[in-house]
Write a structure and sequence with these properties.
The complex is a heterodimer of chains A (about 575) and B (about 270).
Chain A lengths: L4 H7 L8 H6 L4 H31 L4 E2 L3 E2 L2 H20 L1 H15 L8 H20 L30 H30 L12 H32 L10 E2 L2 E2 L7 H35 L6 H14 L15 H29 L8 H18 L1 H4 L2 H7 L3 H31 L5 H27 L13 H4 L2 H31 L63
Antiparallel strand pairs in A: 1-2, 3-4
Chain B lengths: L1 H21 L12 H32 L16 H31 L7 E8 L2 E6 L20 H4 L13 E3 L2 E4 L4 E7 L4 E5 L4 E5 L5 E5 L5 E7 L11 E7 L1 H15 L1
Parallel strand pairs in B: 1-5, 4-10
Antiparallel strand pairs in B: 1-2, 2-3, 5-8, 6-7, 6-9, 9-10
Helix pairs in contact in B: 1-2, 2-3
The chains are: A mainly alpha (about 575), B alpha+beta (about 270).
Chain lengths: ~575, ~270
């Protein structure tokens, strides 16, 4: 166990910076870097959401003229879905929960003064920032962004002649992802080292808040997954620009035989999904950790089955690397491989179910306070169940024959990986905003935001299941050409209307966020009466987090309603004996 | 607030479940030999997962209402969990999920482990941006050779797939843009792609398989009802993906033979 006095003190050797540039731009402070990641993700999520809005409009009114894009061509629609997916998966779901909140709160929750490698931390952010700029640059090059989807399947992604957007736009897309991988790898190293080496005295692994466990496991997944994607991206760049043939066999495009020979399109899929499936857990694990935390705090009860929660997350992490083939059941892989992958995939449903049971178990006989973060945590559990329940359909190759590439898949992963994770981000924002900015967010606006988003999410994504059940296919820019898909247009219309309302609701959040920074009610140091270390320090925390003092931990993170204790919560730093005082 | 949550959660649950039970939007009627068993397994999965879904959401809503803070002095229950429960629900979900999977494994085996029966009708299906071509062996039962350098997609037909017409085996090969199949006879499809990945999807046949450049993928299904069925491309293949569709016409064996003979005659 790391008893971190020495480490903690040497790590914040960098003094509080004075200049604007060192304080807010090239900062070494994990809290500032956390905010930088957060605002990068906030920008990205609104860009990504705007793109999805344009797609939704185009799907039901294909001939309408749109802002910035005019009357949308089929290839424009495809480039929008590529950018929407890439922005959301990488720059929102990977960036905000881990880079944003993880950076800000991991060191504080374990009692450290900063991350283990502050310079590396700064580099990770700025590389990620450059990656985002490179991605956006695809909008302004000839041909626009690539149309191969966020999964970038070769040979489509490898052949500049395979369609508009497959030229410079595709090179920028790959470069952006490769850069993102570097940033994510550096960040993963930092998180792992920080968690292992920088915990204060008394903060054993099994006393860490589940948020820290989630960030730690996410970082391990990132370390193993992003390296593979990086390699795949480099190979793809070589195929495109140097004439190698890793992913492309002999193909004929537009009547021309290309120079490629002997490559394997399936190799790309293996490499991509070896990253891509763990990526799902990279997006959702931090939300799981956070919601465990919130359900406990606001039920005023210890988390039900702390150890089971830790083991469940660990087994999700391990199994997460053995299931990538379920994205490839119809790709031409061996049906025996498909079967093995499908068994592992069904197995990963078990720890996910355990987590759900434990969340329900925590609510059971609790004393629930419906604060905004708690509303979003409950919303998360509901969405996690709804998105999770479609997993066992898709995990069985027999059913995937029919459902693969349908809207059923879209509904599944948007609910569980997209919106559930975003509910985690919202919950984290409402929960930690007071600590980060010293003020409370407006509660009634937060409630309105919750109802808009929660009901809106279901009205958007439930109908997508029905659309998929009727074999409606994803990545179709228009439904006019296939008769049975055209018959489903009323469903698409309903979904688009629901999206209008839900997206409008997000401006309540945006307004609340910026309004509350200046006008919110002043927050105390521990407004939620929570137990973990970030609530023991001042609001907002000083540069070295604990003002020169190193906390010592005596309790687990979820000691609520302890019989005989003077209050209904016992801080992790409270003296060891307090719980037994009658 | 607890009550509102309960009402909203329950309403969402009932509304969502209603449309699944009412089958307002549903699979098209199955028209292949395996459609029945696949649909049956769909139903089993639906019922089991539906129960889990409804139970979990209703309990979540109920707990939110039941255990809301009523401002009473009574504290929440101090407990850290229950090992027996943890072990219990771990085993139960493992049995449910893995069991479901094993139940469907025999269907998967008959769809994908076993090869087509001898005597199955062979049809080569070639996908290219943005059309499907179907090739029949003709009377000799052999496909003639194709050559990449002969491929000319703009010319359509035999030229689109690069058929080497100088080879004797090619003489009676029939290449069409619409797929004809005789009813109640197994078809062995050989899936190929020229440029990028496409996916051959016939919803009514409960059949889908990617066509991958560089591979010739052998699959099989048996149509059991005559009629016209839509074929859609189910893998993003470029700007024309949405219009890469085709028709499958399942006809009686006599009609099929007549149709094939007419195509042969056209070639001469």
């Amino acid at each position: 166990m790391a008893t971190g006095d020495f480490v903690a003190h040497s790590a914040h050797a960098h003094a509080a910076p004075q200049s604007f540039i060192r304080k807010w731009v090239f900062s070494l402070d994990h809290k500032v870097i956390g905010l930088q990641y957060y605002f990068l993700a906030l920008t990205a999520v609104f860009v990504g959401m705007f793109l999805s809005l344009l797609m939704r409009i185009h799907l039901i009114w294909p001939n309408v003229s749109l802002p910035l894009f005019g009357e949308m061509k089929p290839e424009t629609y495809l480039s929008l879905l590529t950018m929407h997916g890439t922005i959301m998966v990488f720059f929102v779901l990977t960036t905000a929960p881990q880079g944003g909140f993880g950076n800000y709160f991991l060191p504080i929750q374990i009692g450290a003064a900063d991350m283990a490698f502050p310079v590396l931390n700064m580099l990770s952010f700025w590389i990620t920032f450059v990656a985002f700029m490179v991605l956006l640059a695809a909008f302004v090059v000839t041909g626009g962004p690539p149309l191969h989807g966020w999964t970038g399947y070769a040979p489509l992604s490898a052949l500049p002649s395979a369609g508009p957007g497959q030229g410079p736009g595709a090179d920028l897309w790959i470069t952006s992802i490769a850069l993102f991988c570097i940033g994510a790898l550096l960040s993963a190293l930092n998180f792992i080292t920080t968690t292992l080496d920088m915990r204060v005295k008394g903060m054993s692994m099994m006393r860490m808040p589940l948020t820290c466990w989630a960030w730690f496991i996410t970082a391990i997944l990132g370390l193993l997954a992003f390296g593979v994607l990086f390699a795949a991206g480099i190979l793809l760049l070589l195929d495109r620009n140097v004439g190698t043939s890793f992913f492309v066999p002999l193909v004929i495009v537009n009547g021309q035989i290309t120079a490629h020979r002997g490559g394997s399109p399936l190799l790309w899929q293996h490499l991509f999904w070896f990253f891509g499936h763990p990526e799902v857990y990279i997006a959702i694990l931090p939300a799981m950790g956070l919601c465990s935390q919130l359900v406990s705090v606001f039920s005023r009860k210890p988390i039900f089955g702390y150890k089971a929660m830790v083991y469940a997350m660990l087994s999700i992490g391990i199994l997460g690397f053995m299931v990538w083939g379920h994205h490839m059941f119809m790709s031409g892989i061996s049906p025996y491989t498909a079967f093995a992958m499908s068994v592992m995939t069904m197995a990963i449903g078990v720890p996910s179910a355990i987590k759900t049971f434990n969340w329900l178990g925590t609510l059971w006989h609790g004393k629930i306070r419906f604060t905004p973060p708690m509303l979003f945590a409950i919303g998360f559990v509901s969405l996690f169940v709804s998105g999770g329940i479609s997993g066992p359909f898709l995990a069985q190759p027999v059913l995937d024959i029919y459902l693969h590439e349908s809207y059923f898949v879209i509904a599944h992963f948007h609910l569980i990986m997209g919106v559930a994770s975003i509910f985690g981000i919202f919950a984290a924002t409402y929960y930690w905003f007071p600590k980060m900015f010293g003020r409370m967010m407006n509660e009634s606006l937060a409630r309105w935001h919750f109802w808009f988003t929660f009901i809106g999410t279901y009205t958007i994504f439930m109908p997508m299941h029905y659309y998929g059940m009727a074999a409606g296919l994803r990545r179709y820019s228009q439904s006019t050409e296939v008769a049975y898909i055209h018959n489903l247009l009323p469903l698409q219309k309903f979904i688009t209307y629901a999206a209008f309302v839900t997206i409008a609701g997000q401006f309540i959040f945006l307004f609340n966020l910026f309004w509350s920074m200046r006008h919110g009610e002043r927050a105390s140091d521990n407004p939620w009466e929570a137990t973990t270390l970030e609530w023991t320090t001042t609001t907002p925390p000083p540069h070295d987090n604990f003002a020169g003092h190193t906390p010592v931990v005596y309790h687990g993170p979820y000691e609520y309603s302890v019989p005989g204790a003077p209050r209904d919560y016992v801080m992790q730093t409270d003296p060891a004996k307090i719980a037994t005082v009658a | 607030m607890g009550l509102i949550l309960l009402i909203v959660l329950w309403l969402i649950t009932f509304a969502s479940t209603y449309f699944f039970i009412a089958k307002t939007w549903w699979l098209p009627p199955g028209a292949s030999a395996s459609a029945n068993v696949i649909d049956h397994h769909f139903a089993v999965t639906y019922i089991l997962m539906g129960i889990v879904f409804v139970a979990a959401q209703l309990i979540l809503g109920f707990f939110a209402w039941k255990y809301r803070d009523r401002g009473s002095r009574e504290a929440a229950r101090y407990m850290h969990g229950n090992n027996a429960l943890e072990i219990g629900w771990t085993i139960l979900t493992a049995i449910l999920f893995i069991g479901l999977n094993l139940m469907s494994s025999s269907i998967w085996a008959s769809e994908r482990f076993r090869a087509a029966q001898p005597g199955a009708l062979q049809v080569e299906v070639t996908g290219m941006q943005f059309a499907w071509y179907f090739r029949y062996t003709g009377l000799d039962g052999k496909f003639g050779p194709t050559k990449p350098e002969l491929i000319d997609p703009s010319a359509g037909g035999e030229s689109a797939i690069g058929l080497d017409t100088s080879d004797p085996a090619s003489k009676d090969d029939v290449v069409t843009g619409t797929m004809y199949l005789p009813v109640n006879r197994e078809v062995e499809v050989i899936l190929k792609a020229h440029d990028v990945i496409h996916s051959f999807f016939v919803p009514a046949m409960r059949f889908k398989q990617d066509a991958v450049p560089g591979l010739a993928i052998h699959m099989h299904f048996t149509p059991i009802a005559t009629g016209d069925y839509e074929i859609a491309c189910a893998e993003l293949c470029g700007m024309g993906h949405y219009k890469m569709h085709g028709m499958l016409k399942v006809v009686s064996p006599e009609e099929f033979d007549k149709w094939l003979a007419a195509r042969e005659a056209e070639k001469q």
